[in-house]
Give the backbone structure.
Amino acid sequence: MNKYNQIKTIRYMGNKNRLLDFIIPEIRKIAKRSDIICDLMSGTGAIAYALKDKYTVYTNDIQYYSYIIDKAIIENNKITVDKNIAILDLQEHFFKNQSKKIYHFFEDNFTDTYFSGPQCCEIDSIRYAIDQIKDEYKKDLYLTALMYAMSKCESTSGHFAQYLPKDHKRLVELRTKSIWEEMLVKCDDFSSLVMSKFENKAFNMDYKDLFQKEEFKKVSCVYIDTPYTGEQYSRFYHVLETVTKYDNPKLEFKAKYRTDRFMSNFSLRSTVKQEFKEMLSFLSKENKKVVLSYSTKGLISIDELEFIFSKTFKHYKLIEKDYQHSTQGKGTIKINEVLFVAYN
Ligand SMILES: C[S@@+](CC[C@H](N)C(=O)[O-])C[C@H]1O[C@@H](n2cnc3c(N)ncnc32)[C@H](O)[C@@H]1O
C-alpha cells in the first residue's frame, strides 16, 4: 500500500497505480502549490487522483471512457454514491429494461463474445437505468462502476482485442458472474472518494487540440504518460468506448471493433519520434515544466528520447526504476520504468 490516494477503476494497460511512489514525489518537487498540473494522457486518472488533494489538476485523454472516469473521480468534487443509493437510483429502471428490452445493443451485438447473453442484457439494462439519472457526476460514477464490473467479468485475457475460446477453463466461472451485483458492490468504493477544494477539469481530445485551448495557458506543469508499445488503446478498450457512448456504432471483425477507432502516433513506429519532438518543443516554448513516463521496452529508445530532451529543454534529468509489469494475460516481464523531469 503506498501513501498516495488511490482508487481502482478499470484494468488498464500501463496504469500507474503501482508506480505512485516513484512518480508523485518527482512531480511534487518541481510543482508549486499554486501550479495547475495537467495529466495530458490520463487513462484511469491514477496520477491526477493521487495529486488531487494538493493541486488543481486537469486531465485529458482521447478516449471517451477515460473522460468519464476522470469526470467521476477528478473533476467531481461533490457527489458520492454507495450501494444503497445505487439500488434506489437504478434498480427499478434496471428491472424494467430486463423485461421490456428497451436498450438491447449489447445483447444484439456482443452475446457470447466477451460476455454471455444474460451478462449483455445486464449491461443494456444498467445502461438504460443510468440514462434515467439527471445528475452528470452521478452518471459518471455509475458508468465507472459499470466499466469496473465489466472488466471483472469479461471473458478475456485482460483486454478487448480477443475473447476466450469456448473451451477455456475459466469461461463458465466468468460468464456466470453478475455484472449488476459487481457494479453495486463497486459503488461502495465511491462513498469515500477524495474531494478537494480545487476546481479540477477533465478534457476529451487529442492533446494537440488541448494545447490550443485557452485553459491550457494556465497550466504550469504537465505529466505525460504516452502509450509506449505498438498496441492501440482504441483496439484494446473499444468495448468501454461503446458502453460509455452507447451510440449504436458500426462494428467490424470477429473482435467487434468500432470502425471509428483513434490511432495514436505514439503507437506507430513511423511517427513516434516526430510526435515526441513536436510535443516537447511546444511545451518547452510555452515554458511548461514536464514530467514524462516511458519504458525501456518502448517503440523509441531511451537514448533517442534523451537526445530530444537535451535539444528541447535547458534542464532535464532521467530517473529509472525496475518494475514487474503485467503483459495482459501473458504473465509478467521485468522492465525499467523511466521518468524524465524537464524545465527551462
Ligand atoms: C499509458 S496510458 C496512460 C495511463 C495512465 N497514466 C494511467 O495511470 O491510467 C496512455 C493513454 O494515452 C492516451 N492517448 C494516446 N494518444 C493520445 C493523444 N494523441 N491525445 C490524447 N490521449 C492520447 C490513450 O488513450 C491512453 O489512455
